[in-house]
Amino acid sequence: MSDELVKLDVRGAVLVVTIDRPEVRNALDLATADALSRAIDRLEEDDALRVGVLTGADGVFSSGMDLRAFQRGDVPYVASRGIFGIVNAPPRKPFIAAVEGYALAGGFELMLACDLVVAASDAEFGIPEVRRGVLAASGALMHLPARIPLAVALEMALTGAPVGAERAAALGLVNRIVEPGDALEAAIAMAEQIARNAPLAVEASKRILYETSGWSAEEAWAKQGEIAGPVLTSEDAQEGPRAFTEGRDPEWRGR
């Protein structure tokens, strides 16, 4: 399936989502954000799809908001998922960013809406908004301190200077660095590794990892139990050990 602005490619249990606006370095206007939102809905609603991969066409991840469109009053905000059609409500299923070229400004914030990042060795990351008289208010200032040390987040936000892939990996922003041109296939390989696991367990693990920072010590175990309980009593929780003892691959049913 494809959209004029966002292309979809199903690779087994993996949905590859490609922002296809190379003429504006894959910047997002409202129509593109809406197409991306619909792609996320497809990932969420199709039980055969376990993991998503987000990338950009022609060797660039995304330059973020389409500023020319914005000056015309075109704001890339979709009611159901917010900024860029994903930032305010990312998918519950794992989502991996495959970054070639650069992820700057809103493109960097788009990357932060993903769970994992595979990047080319020459990729660059940054939030240069202060150099343009604005600020990174599409998620970076809120989410970046949870991903990297506060001092580095402050450096990126206040100087606007970009960070290379090697430093990004050292900081924990990037999971894997690959040769230029290989980010997408490496991200798909990672997605396939995740997709082989039990879907209920994967989704619950992601949810707990994101939500635990907001739990007090007194409520943490109870909160985790609410999420983990249905998984531990599921059919898949029986299938996993059974398949192991029988020496075969498990057949997950998602229930």
Characterise this structure.
The protein has helices spanning 30-45, 67-71, 106-112, 140-147, 150-159, 165-171, 183-195, 199-211, 220-232, 235-245, and strands at 6-11, 14-19, 51-56, 77-78, 82-83, 95-99, 102-104, 116-120, 124-126, 163-164, 176-178. The protein has a six-stranded mixed sheet with strand order 1-2-3-6-8-11, with helices on both faces. Strands 7-9-10 form a three-stranded mixed sheet. The protein folds into two domains: 6-195, 2-enoyl-CoA Hydratase, Chain A, domain 1 (Alpha-Beta Complex); 199-245, Orthogonal Bundle (Lyase 2-enoyl-coa Hydratase, Chain  A, domain 2), CATH 1.10.12.10. The longest helix has 16 residues, at 30-45. The protein is α/β, with parallel strands linked by helices and 255 residues long. The protein has ten helices and eleven strands. Strand 1 (6-11) and strand 2 (14-19) form a beta hairpin. The protein starts with 5 loop residues before the first strand and ends in a 10-residue tail after the last helix.
Shape annotation: globular
Q: Order of strands across the biggest sheet?
A: 1-2-3-6-8-11
Per CATH, which architecture of the largest domain? Answer: Alpha-Beta Complex
CATH third-level topology of the largest domain: 2-enoyl-CoA Hydratase, Chain A, domain 1
Uncertain spans = none
Q: What percent of residues adopt helix (DSSP H or I)? A: 40-55%
Count of the domains:
2
Total helical elements: 10
Measured between the Cα atoms of the first and last residue, the distance is 28 Å
Task: Identify the CATH homologous superfamily of the largest domain.
Answer: 2-enoyl-CoA Hydratase, Chain A, domain 1
Average residue pLDDT: 94
Question: Which CATH top level class of the largest domain fits?
Answer: Alpha Beta
Rg (C-alpha, Å): 19 Å
Q: State the secondary-structure class.
A: alpha/beta
Measured by DSSP, the beta-strand proportion falls in: 15-25%
- SSE sequence, one letter per element: EEHEHEEEEHEEHHEHEHHHH
Largest sheet: 6 strands, mixed
- Number of E-type strands: 11
